[in-house]
Amino acid sequence: MGEGVWAAVKAIGRRRWKKEAGYQRQAQGENAFFRYKSIIGEALRARTPGGQEAEALLACNVLNRMTKLGRPASYSIGR
Q: In terms of pTM, does the model score above 0.85?
């Protein structure tokens, strides 16, 4: 991060900066890919583009179903 970013974080606070900068969306995206790679694997097994598309779609549906079943209740504990 550049000096301007650090100044903004210091001026408005880390939590507010993250919200204004859209940091949460980036973190959610990175987390989704981490879950996908951890559970499904890092490489597609299908050879054809159509098969790869079907495999990725199926894997995402499986992850969504697993997430729905075991999603913990979360809440903010900060300010």
A: no
Range of the domain at 44: 9-68
Angle ∠(74,78,79) on CA atoms, nearest 5: 130
Distances (CA, A) of 47 to 44, 50, 55, 60: 8, 9, 10, 18
Number of structural domains the chain divides into: 1
**H/E element holding 34?**
helix 23-39
Write out pLDDT tens, residues 35-69.
888 888 889 999 999 999 999 999 999 888 888 88
